[in-house]
# Entry
Amino acid sequence: MGVRQGGRCLDAQIGPRGSDKLWWPQGADCTTPRVLYVHGGDWQRFGPDTGGYDAFATKFAAEADAVVLVPDFPLAPFGNFTGTMQALEAAWYWLSRHGADAEDCSASPDRPPLFVAGDSSGAASALSFLLRLSSGHVGTGLPAAAGFIGYSPWTNLACNSPTFYTKSFAAIEEVERQGAMAVVGDILHRASPEGNSASLRRLALQYVEGDATLLEDPVVSPFFALEGHLRSLPPLYLAVAGSEARTADGTLLAERAAKAGVIVVQDVFDGAWHNFHLYSEGCGSGGVLWQGRAAPRGPR
# Structure
């Protein structure tokens, strides 16, 4: 397994940033499929080598037998939707011309498939980029994507999906066993449905620089993409956590995309929490989280 850090960049607004990072499986060359992976973190946290994304990218590259590029896009409050799209466009152009170990593949006659992927807020940005790419609203000469892979996608920036209520957290005392408790719903976001919606909406507002109208924009907030937008998408694979407030961000989007004629494969992992795919080692439990192992493998 290889890993390479790109050249460091200096942003006048935020000072030194980290580097985009590239992972590849053993034996990869210019014919190996490539994936642009957009990390999550509410547009405010993490990067290619923090938040567990370095470990996940290593596993993902091996599991998918693909070259994986994780860009270090600018984070809020200095970063925003426009800056993120510009960073992803530049990363996509670079990835279309380079393979394992940053080998220049621009002269290669082989054109391997390129995929866009992401999780949580990163899945929203990845889908926004894909919607722009498939509709021709990005720079000329960029290749089309062969597909999209999304984990626990946060696609509704208005944060009003129905599962904010139906998947809200609750602790239930068992009647037959005194003192025994069971928990259901979103174990990571334990506020009321209104409280969870409001807190996540505030994060989304920073991403769109306070413009609330963009929270339901069909490109910025892909949950609201219209049939005409969705029809242009390549095949989608969505791995959705079944016990989180944003479950419907994935399931309803998948339903609408399928109705628009897009090939969609969706796995809903009941009982799983947001971004469960990052916890394949079992969250310190001593056992393997099979859902976290299964999701990166995708449909078989």
Notes: The longest helix spans residues 81-97. DSSP finds eight helices and twelve strands in the chain.
